[in-house]
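job 3f2a | input accepted
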Amino acid sequence: MKLGLVACIVLSAAAGCNAFTGGPVTGAASLRQKKVDAVSKVAAASPRAGLDGTRRDVIQTASAAVAGLLSSAVLPAGALAAAKAEPNRRVFTTDGGVKFIVLKEGTGPVARDGDFCVVEFTGFLPDGAVFDASNAPGRKPIAFQLGKRQVIKGWEEVLRLMNAGAEVQMVVPADMAFGDKGICIDNGDCLVKPGMDVRYDLQLKRVAPTP
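job 3f2a | predicted structure (211 res):
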């Protein structure tokens, strides 16, 4: 099945800009942004849902950053909720149970295993709090090879259905995201709790075949 797809990325890419108010980042908001940056490597770009050595090192390094992140601003109900109120808005479900809607059709090539993909994303907890974003100040879109477990399984399932340029919003069940380990540090603080579903707004910027 060939589907063009892609999402509503709501955070501002402007450095020093508060994505929720449009104003400058100050005080607590600035501190929260530093925490997001510190833990960013552990989230969507993490190689595996389980806690491998690389993720453990990053989490330990970011332990001070995790505390308080969950107090970040909460966004309004997402597009999946809106889809329920619009019968013509179709909600797709992958074999692994990832639910997603198409927010923008793509016109580029379909992503296939082995292709190199460039992706913009924003990750949300169930309460709407942002836990990671590629367009935060100092960040950039991530690049990876599809099918090599360089991102969470839920991403891979949906990306295989996307054309370059597409945007989607997806709800990823825990077993297709960070599993029963979540993203936690040794003292028990968790950025993503064990067994927690997460939501992503995702844009497939580019697709390039393996040389």
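job 3f2a | The helical segments are 27-39, 53-61, 63-66, 79-85, 153-159.
job 3f2a | closed
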